[in-house]
């Protein structure tokens, strides 16, 4: 008969497979939302640890990626809300040091756009990442971020304006 | 710089890849925390199991005919733990492993305790069924969704509780 220790060990191995399947998506989202590699790494780890703990609550009828995204967004928001995180962000942005470049292959996104996104105010960046890059609707993004749909639209409008200015684009908001 | 100046902002955003690989392997840190969490949880649940076992003993002492027969109870446990179609194979395998461990641990319990455990498990599952019924008409209700999640947590706590109890039972009643 398999012991409980064996069962847990097997579960952790399975969870590692799960981690390898989804780490790119989770880290990508965390990195875009935080604009900082270290913060993104921390949030990614927090996300998977939380996913492990919430394993029994996972509903098979919901998509794994959506479920992980929800946890990741919560972790990023919680981190931003902490005094330590705010201090860290303010300190890093007061200098001229640009955010880390995203890792990736030749199909990686253009550096200037990533930098411009990372330099956006938190609220605008969060909405732009979820709606503009990850394809969430305003209602879905608003729910994930815990804000009103109108606020979500305002943040996106502001993000597009700022990006247009910083990248020299003549953008008309839709 | 490889950017094309004639692309609109939306087009540039659409070209951004969603996946980004972290520069270092984050798994060792996650694994350490996962295993630590599992150990802490087992210790806490072992303490809780001691309290529950004491309560069972007191209950059995004052209500000797209250326990139900194990056979009918075992039949009730034979139902599938979750009939919904799984998505994310690795994730579902992990949960299945925990449930499998519980199923084997359950057999180690004394018959009366096993019957009581299954009765309590039924209570949790019935509550979940009720909450799901309510969610069918109001799927976005945050309180109902939280309650539903709580029932899963309760069930998994229950599994671990039974595991701890069965370990001590095996010591008292070698199989």
Topology:
The complex is a heterodimer of chains A (174) and B (175).
Chain A: H1 4-34, H2 37-53, H3 64-81, H4 83-94, H5 111-118, H6 122-133, H7 138-145, H8 149-166
Chain B: H1 9-15, H2 27-62, H3 70-77, H4 89-106, H5 111-137, H6 142-172
Helix pairs in contact in B: 2-6, 3-5, 4-6, 5-6
Write a concise keyword list for the protein shown above:
heterodimer; A: 174 residues; mainly alpha; 8 helices; B: 175 residues; 6 helices
pLDDT below 50 for ≥5 consecutive residues: which ranges of chain A?
Answer: 96-111
Count of DSSP H/I helices of chain B? 6
Tell me the helix content of chain A: over 70%
**Overall form of chain A:** globular
Task: Give the largest interface.
Answer: A-B, 65 and 53 residues
Distance between the termini of chain B: 71 Å
In round numbers, the mean pLDDT of chain B is 68
For the CA atoms, what is the radius of gyration of chain B? Answer: 23 Å
Hey, roughly how much beta strand do the residues of chain B contain? under 5%
For the sheet with most strands of chain B, the description reads: none
The number of distinct β-strands of chain B equals: 0
> Which range best describes the helical content of chain B: under 10%, 10-25%, 25-40%, 40-55%, 55-70% or over 70%?
over 70%
Strand content of chain A: under 5%
Question: Count of helical segments of chain A?
Answer: 8
User: Quick one: biggest sheet of chain A?
Assistant: none
Order of helices and strands of chain B: HHHHHH
Please provide a brief summary of the model.
The complex is a heterodimer of chains A (174) and B (175). Helix content of chain A is 71%, strand content 0%.
Question: Can you offer a commentary on this structure?
Answer:
The complex is a heterodimer of chains A (174) and B (175). Chain A has 8 helices and no strands. With 174 residues, chain A is mostly helical. In chain A, helix 1 crosses helix 6 (122-133), helix 6 (122-133) packs across helix 7 (138-145) and helix 7 crosses helix 8. Chain A starts with a helix and ends in an 8-residue tail after the last helix. Mean pLDDT of chain A is 79; it is low at 96-111. Chain B contains 6 helices and no strands. The longest helix of chain B has 36 residues, at 27-62. In chain B, 25% of the residues are buried. Mean pLDDT of chain B is 68; it is low at 67-86 and 169-175. The interface between A and B is large, with 65 and 53 residues.
């Amino acid at each position: 008969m398999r012991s409980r220790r064996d069962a847990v060990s097997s579960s952790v191995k399975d969870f590692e497979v799960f981690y390898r399947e989804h780490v790119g998506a989770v880290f990508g989202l965390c990195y875009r939302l935080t604009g900082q590699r270290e913060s993104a790494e921390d949030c990614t780890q927090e996300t998977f640890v939380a996913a492990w703990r919430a394993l029994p609550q996972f509903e098979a009828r919901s998509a794994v990626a959506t479920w992980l995204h929800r946890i990741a967004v919560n972790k990023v928001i919680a981190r931003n809300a902490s005094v330590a995180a705010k201090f860290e962000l303010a300190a890093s942005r007061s200098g001229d040091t640009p955010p880390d470049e995203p890792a990736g292959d030749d199909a990686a996104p253009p550096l200037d756009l990533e930098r411009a996104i990372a330099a956006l105010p938190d609220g605008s960046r969060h909405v732009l990442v979820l709606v503009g890059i990850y394809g969430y609707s305003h209602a879905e993004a608003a729910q994930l971020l815990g804000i009103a749909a109108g606020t979500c639209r305002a943040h996106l409008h502001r993000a597009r304006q700022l990006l247009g200015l910083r990248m020299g684009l003549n953008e008309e908001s839709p | 710089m490889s950017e094309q100046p004639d692309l609109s902002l939306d087009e540039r955003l659409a070209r951004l890849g969603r996946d980004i690989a972290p520069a270092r392997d984050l798994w060792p840190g996650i694994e350490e925390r996962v295993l630590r969490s599992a150990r802490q949880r087992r210790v806490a649940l072992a303490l809780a199991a001691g309290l529950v076992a004491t309560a069972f003993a007191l209950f059995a002492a004052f209500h000797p005919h209250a326990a139900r027969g194990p056979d009918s109870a075992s039949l009730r446990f034979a139902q599938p733990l979750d009939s919904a179609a799984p998505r994310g194979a690795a994730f579902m395998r992990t949960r299945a492993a925990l449930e499998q461990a519980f199923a084997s641990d359950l057999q180690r319990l004394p018959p009366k305790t096993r019957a009581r455990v299954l009765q309590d498990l039924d209570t949790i599952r019935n509550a979940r069924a009720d909450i799901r019924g309510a969610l069918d008409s109001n799927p976005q209700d945050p309180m109902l969704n939280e309650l539903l999640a709580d029932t899963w947590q309760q069930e998994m706590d229950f599994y671990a509780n039974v595991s701890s109890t069965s370990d001590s039972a095996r010591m008292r009643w070698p199989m």
